[in-house]
Design brief:
The chain has 2 domains: about 290 residues, TIM Barrel, CATH 3.20.20; about 70 residues, Arc Repressor Mutant, subunit A (Orthogonal Bundle), CATH 1.10.10. About 40% of the residues lie in helices and about 20% in strands. The protein is built from 15 helices and 18 strands. The strands form 4 sheets. It has a 9-stranded mixed beta sheet. Strands 1-15-14-13 form a 4-stranded antiparallel beta sheet. Strands 16-18-17 form a 3-stranded antiparallel beta sheet. A hairpin with a 4-residue loop joins strand 10 and strand 11. Helix 2 packs parallel to helix 3. It is globular and about 60 Å long.
Length: about 425
C-alpha cells in the first residue's frame, strides 16, 4: 500500500539532509556554580507571571522502552511514597518564599511514568499542587501515563483530586511493533482501554502516535490513524521518530532484531497523509504535532505555552524550568535529590533577550505560521524565509508566512536554522 497524497509539494524529503530539533537549553548563558545561591534566591523570591506553567517530573519507569531517551530509574514500589514526600516538601518550601502574584494556567505531570505511583500518592501530589500553587480556576492539569500502571480506580482517584486531562503513550496500535518497542499490551487492548476511557470519563483524553518506526510501512500507519480516529479521543499527538544516537533501538536495528528505520521520504509522506486524514475527519491542527477534536474540550495549554517561552516552575528530580529570566534544572541524580533538604539544582543559566524573542518565533512556527515583522531586524533570516518559499516550505502573504504541510514536517529544522541566524 502507498498512501495517496493531495499534492506532490506536500512531501519534500530532500529539503534538508536531516530533521534536527532545537535543544531546550539553546540560547541560555550558563552561570558559574559559585553564583548559584544568589541566583536561586532570585528564583524563589520572584513572583510568577500570569499564564505561567508548572511541571512535575516522576523519574521512574517499569522498563526502558527502546525508542525513549528519558529513562532514568527503574520503578520499585518502595520509591513511591518517599519520592512524593520529597516532592511535596519541595513544593511547600517553594511556596513559602514565593511572593504573591501571578497565576498558573497549566500543570503537567510527566516523566518517566507518573502513573507508576499509587493512587494514594498521586492523590497526595495533586492535592498538594492545588494547595501550594496559585492555579487559575480553569487550570489544565495533565497526567501523563501508560496503560500498564493506570487502572480505572487510579484514573478515578486522579480525576477526583483535580486532574482534568490524561495523556496516554501509545506509539502504535500494531501489536507486533508494540512488543518490539517494549509495550506489554496488544494494540487491541490499547484501543479498548482508550475507547472505554473516552466513553466513561469527563476528562480530556489524549494519545500519541509515532511515525517512522522500524518496520512501520504505509499500511500500518494508515491503520494506526484509523484506529485513533475511532476511539472518541479529545486530542492526538503525531510525532516523527528521531533516532538519537544513545537510544537502545539503534543497537537492536544494528543486530537485526528490528527492521531498518523508514527513510525521510517515507516519514514525510506519512506525515502529509496524517495531516490530510485528520483534517478530513474535521480535526483542527493546533500545532505541528498536535490535533484537537473540535467536539471535545481540548486546549493543549501546557504544550503550546511551553514552546513560546512561558515561565515554568519545575519540581522533582530531573525537572527543568524557567522563571524570572533564569532557566534551571533540578538535581537528576535520584539519591541526591531524596537526600536534599532544599531545592537541589544541577544547572542555572541566564535567558537572553534574544532567546525571549525567539520563544515567540518558535511558538508561532509550532502553530504553522510566522509574523515577518518579528524578523525585521534580521535580514539574513528574511532572506532564508524567501529561500524556503521558493523551496515550497512556506507561503508569504505580506508580513505573514504560513508553513506548507512539508514545511510543518520540517519545522524542527526550520526552527533550528532560524535560531542559528538569530
Amino acid at each position: 500500500m502507498t498512501l495517496a497524497l493531495h499534492h506532490p509539494n506536500d512531501v519534500l524529503p530532500d529539503a534538508f539532509k536531516e530533521r534536527k530539533a532545537l535543544m531546550p537549553m539553546w540560547g541560555a548563558n550558563p552561570i558559574a556554580a559559585e553564583q548559584w545561591p544568589q541566583m536561586q534566591a532570585t528564583l524563589t523570591q520572584a513572583a510568577i507571571s500570569d499564564g505561567a506553567l508548572a511541571y512535575f517530573h516522576i523519574p521512574f519507569c517499569a522498563n526502558h522502552c527502546v525508542f525513549c531517551g528519558f529513562y532514568r530509574n527503574a520503578w520499585q514500589e518502595k520509591h513511591g511514597a518517599p519520592y512524593v514526600d520529597r516532592l511535596i516538601a519541595e513544593l511547600a518550601q517553594d511556596a513559602s518564599s514565593r511572593p504573591a502574584g501571578g497565576r498558573i494556567q497549566a500543570v503537567y505531570f510527566g516523566g518517566g511514568t507518573p502513573t507508576a505511583l499509587s493512587a494514594n500518592d498521586l492523590t497526595r501530589l495533586l492535592s498538594a499542587a492545588r494547595q501550594y500553587l496559585p492555579l487559575t480556576d480553569d487550570c489544565e492539569i495533565t497526567i501523563e501515563g501508560r496503560i500498564s500502571h493506570f487502572d480505572r480506580d487510579k484514573v478515578n482517584a486522579c480525576l477526583a483530586a483535580g486532574a482534568n486531562r490524561i495523556s496516554i503513550g501509545v506509539q502504535s496500535f500494531d501489536s507486533q511493533l508494540r512488543r518490539r518497542l517494549g509495550r506489554h499490551h496488544s494494540g487491541e487492548a490499547a484501543a479498548d482501554y482508550l475507547r472505554a476511557l473516552c466513553q466513561d470519563c469527563d476528562a480530556v483524553i489524549v494519545a500519541d502516535l509515532m511515525l517512522g518506526l522500524p518496520g512501520q510501512d504505509d499500511e500500518k500507519w494508515a491503520h494506526d490513524l484509523d484506529v485513533a480516529l475511532s476511539l472518541g479521543l479529545s486530542g492526538l499527538d503525531i510525532y516523527a521518530f528521531n533516532a538519537f544516537p544513545s537510544l537502545p533501538i539503534n543497537r537492536m536495528i544494528e543486530k537485526g532484531a528490528l527492521k531498518p528505520l523508514p527513510d525521510l521520504a517515507t516519514q514525510a509522506r506519512q506525515y502529509a497523509y496524517a495531516v490530510h486524514k485528520m483534517q478530513a475527519a474535521g480535526w483542527v491542527q493546533v500545532s505541528n504535532s498536535h490535533f484537537a477534536n473540535p467536539q471535545k474540550n481540548e486546549r493543549n495549554r501546557y504544550n503550546s505555552a511551553i514552546k513560546t517561552g512561558h515561565d515554568c516552575l519545575a519540581f522533582g528530580s530531573g525537572a527543568g524550568g524557567c522563571h524570572s529570566g533564569l532557566s534551571y534544572q533540578v538535581q537528576g541524580e535520584l539519591a541526591a535529590y531524596l537526600a536534599s533538604t532544599s531545592k537541589p539544582l544541577s544547572y542555572i543559566a541566564g535567558v537572553s533577550d534574544k532567546k525571549r524573542i525567539f520563544g515567540q518565533i518558535q511558538g508561532e512556527l509550532d502553530r504553522g505560521s510566522l509574523s515577518l515583522e518579528r524578523l525585521a531586524a534580521y535580514p539574513a533570516a528574511l532572506e532564508k524565509i524567501n529561500e524556503w518559499q521558493t523551496a515550497g516550505l512556506l507561503n508569504i502573504d505580506g508580513q505573514h508566512a504560513a508553513l506548507s504541510i512539508a514545511g510543518r514536517f520540517w519545522s524542527p529544522t526550520l526552527t533550528r536554522e532560524l535560531a542559528v541566524l538569530l
